[in-house]
Amino acid sequence: MVNNLVEVRGLTVVRDRPVLDGLDVTIGSGVTGLLGPSGCGKSTLLRAIVGVQQVQGGTVTVLGQRAGSAGLRSRIGYVTQEPSVYDDLTVVENLRFFARVLGCADAEVDAAIDAVDLGSHADARVGRLSGGQRSRASLAVALLGAPDLLVLDEPTVGLDPVLRRDLWMLFHRLADEGAAVLVSSHVMDEAERCDQLLLMREGAILAHDTPEAIKRQAGTADVESAFLALVEDAS
After folding, report:
1. What pLDDT, on a 0 to 100 scale, did the predictor assign at position 85?
2. Cβ-contact 199, 214 below 8 angstroms
3. How confident is the model at residue 1 (pLDDT cuts 50, 70, 90)?
4. Neighbouring residues of 15: CB distance < 8 A, sequence distance ≥ 6
């Protein structure tokens, strides 16, 4: 992996018990998938990278700055598992509001809405949309300002296969245009769509490589089987 845009060293997060305990990882350009079962620490790691997670030890450097630095606010797009848009505003009103905050042109609003395929719902109130549509509205907000790093926490949950495919195509297009995209998921079949994989379990990174390299190392035909083999080896 080249161009280490995110460097995590000795990251420790404790909530009743250690969630992350001295974690080291680097993340570079392209589309990186952070995969593992629910509760393994994926969201905690993403929050630490964005700079909104209280940590007990270690350092996180993003784009050459300490995570959470003011200079990163316009350079990172972040989508949480819960939609982060206003239910009482329409999709386009939400986008225009956040665009003003970021100093983006109106043309970026239209482009972001089209990118997540919400053009036909642009004038609908977010509170009346389906869960998947609300998640896409949040993703559209994250695309404003052409961020250097997109941090997406399970952005495809609850979406139909066609839309999931289209979003992964969007992630790769954004990466081709220069953005680094970090996507978390607990769905192993999405692993094949990534340039690099971070396989995570119980707060630890089990593997960090391309999907093909991980399968080859484990001697398996798919990433899910490789993950299970790695779990057994680590036991």
Report:
1. 94
2. yes
3. very low
4. none
